[in-house]
Amino acid sequence: MAFDLLRRMQRLSPQNITIREQARLEENPLDLRWPALAPRLQANSLKIRDLTKATLRLTAEYRAWNANGRELWEAVGPQSEWEILPLTATKHLDERRMLELSLPDPAIRSLIDNGVVADVGRWSTLLADAVHRRIEAAFFEGWLSNTFSMRDPVSGTALAGPLGFSASRYVAAGVAWTGGSGGTAYNNFVTQVQNAARFLGGQPSVARMRDATFQLIVSSAPAGPNAQRPTVTNVNERLAEQGIRTAIVVDERTYDKSTDGGQGTATTFFVPTGKIGFQPPDGRIGNTHSVAASRGGKELVTNAKVNLQDVTIWYSELNRGMTLLMEAENIAVPMPEEQRLYVYDALV
Questions:
Q1: Is 278 left (phi over 0), alpha (psi -120 to 50) or beta?
Q2: Distance from C-alpha of 53 to C-alpha of 1, rounded to nearest angstrom
Q3: Are 315 and 324 spatial neighbours (Cβ–Cβ below 8 Å)?
Q4: Whole-angstrom Cα distance, residue 82 to residue 100?
Q5: Which residues face 131 on adjacent strands?
Q6: What pTM value is reported for the model?
Q7: pLDDT tens, position by position, 42-95
Q8: Are 193 and 204 spatial neighbours (Cβ–Cβ below 8 Å)?
Q9: Which of 237, 226, 336 is nearest to 279 (CA)?
Q10: Contact 120/95 with Cβ under 8 angstroms?
Q11: What is the rounded CA–CA span in Å between residue 324 and residue 210?
């Protein structure tokens, strides 16, 4: 009988998975930013079309009596188009592994309890986490590097291309910022906050950067009363004295990026070295465009899927029921909006 294996594995039931996932999120939530910076937006097509508003700030004009006033025009920026792609993580559990995980072997149970290996029920959460983490990586890459990249899961071939946002919104320093009492980082940062405000329609709410860049800003900030040098905790007070309310957020989070079609990975920072991402006054950078996952005949099979934190977990039996295939899938792509972009590279 189809999916008899799944019926025997009660921990894979939608109710049990949902309860365990809620408990896991309370104990160890994923440290993700895209749900707030690029909230999910249900798409009505696999094509994403973005029409950018121009940054012109037109004004009226004085005129002579009985003359015509200034004629204004529609200010329209470039139009972009992308396609939403499926994002999938898979896991095969063969007959031997399934049986091994189900036996009361104390050595195996200890590994499972300590999180060294995952049992059948836990893999659904791990797969969903991998999907969410990849959306986070795609979002930060698109926002801070104006790039979208992917790696073919079978061949390991890497593909990458520019998103095509205006180069005027991605600026690099002519010379790397420096720290210390005579350093340039603090004054340069103040200047870039002012530049960002012109592009974003108001003073940025947040400037997100790496710790090395932040330390340069702190060490080169002007001294306070009694020649007191600024510290990490009061540098925002120094900025506020100059009318800057932009909060500095240090982001040192990493993920393990695939480097081939197998198990090769490289530790990668979500925020590249030197990059400073300025967020608009309301904080939002773009949207994560998504459509519901669907696989034809599988929709008709009981217990063929479970929805887990907006990720669809598909279950299939292979090899005459001896192998369980688990697939976590989200058809979604995070995409910034050009009028909400201003990124600066301090080169350090």
A1: beta
A2: 57
A3: yes
A4: 45
A5: none
A6: 0.82
A7: 888 888 776 556 567 778 888 888 888 888 877 666 666 778 889 999 988 888
A8: yes
A9: 336
A10: no
A11: 42
- Among the listed residues 223, 213, 211, 210, the one whose alpha carbon sits nearest the alpha carbon of residue 182: 223
How far is it, in rounded angstroms, from Cα 139 to Cα 146?
A: 10
Angstrom distance (rounded) from CA 3 to CA 12: 11
- Give the C-alpha distances (Å, rounded to integers) separating 336 from 44, 48, 197, 279: 18, 11, 17, 11
Backbone angles phi, psi at 342, to 5 degrees: -155, 115
pLDDT of residue 341: 96
Entry field: residues in the chain: 348
pLDDT in tens, 15-41: 565 565 566 556 556 788 999 999 999
The closest alpha carbon to 334, from 33, 76, 127, belongs to 33
Per-residue tokens: 115: 């999180």
- Count of other CB atoms within 10 angstroms of residue 117: 14
21's CB contacts (< 8 A; 6+ apart) are 125, 128, 308, 309
Cα–Cα dist 247/239, whole Å:
9
SS (H, E, C) the chain: CCCHHHHHCHHHCHHHHHHHHHHHHHHCCCCCCHHHHCCEEECCCCEEEEEEECCCCCCCCCCCCCCCCCCCCCCEEEEEEEECCEEEEEEEECHHHHHHHHCCCHHHHHHHHCCCCCCHHHHHHHHHHHHHHHHHHHHHHHHHHCEEEEECCCCCCEEEEECCCCHHHEEECCCCCCCCCCCCHHHHHHHHHHHHHHHHCCCCCEEEECHHHHHHHHHCCCCCHHHCCCCCCCHHHHHHHCCCCCEEEECCCEEEEECCCCCCEEEEECCCCCEEEEECCCCCCEEEEEECCCCHHHHHCCCCEEEECCEEEEEEEECCCCEEEEEEEEEEEEEECHHHCCEEECCC
